[in-house]
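Retry 2 of 3 after timeout on previous attempt. Resubmitting structure tokens to design endpoint.
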């Protein structure tokens, strides 16, 4: 009985998740035509999540580093979109700060991976 309940709940959650993803996806497609910045943010977000979808090794340290590099690269790309399209001086300054910090961390993570090839 517990297995049947679990299977029913799991199926319901999977269906709800698929429905949400479909609704969310169509929302993005509709909004992309609103501005070049939206299209660039959406593409960056999509690219980042695809790159973060690594094959996990089971080594938490390596997996963290390998997944965080594209995450940080996505942050840099988003900050560059702000520099390209944004107008607010505070937001632009924050974007520049994000780029500087994230690029340093990307270099640190790549160096760690080079020293720890697994």
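Retry 2 succeeded. Sequence:
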């Amino acid at each position: 009985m517990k297995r049947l309940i679990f299977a029913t709940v799991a199926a319901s959650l999977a269906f709800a998740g698929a429905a949400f993803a479909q609704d969310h996806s169509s929302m993005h497609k509709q909004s992309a035509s609103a501005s070049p910045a939206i299209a660039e943010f959406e593409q960056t977000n999509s690219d980042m999540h695809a790159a973060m979808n690594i094959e996990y090794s089971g080594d938490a340290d390596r997996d963290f580093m390998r997944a965080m590099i594209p995450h940080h690269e996505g942050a840099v790309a988003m900050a560059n979109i702000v520099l390209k399209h944004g107008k607010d001086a505070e937001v632009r300054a924050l974007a520049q700060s994000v780029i500087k910090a994230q690029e340093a961390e990307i270099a640190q993570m790549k160096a760690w991976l080079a020293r720890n090839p697994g």
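Attempt log closed. Helices lie at 2-32, 36-52, 60-85, 89-115.
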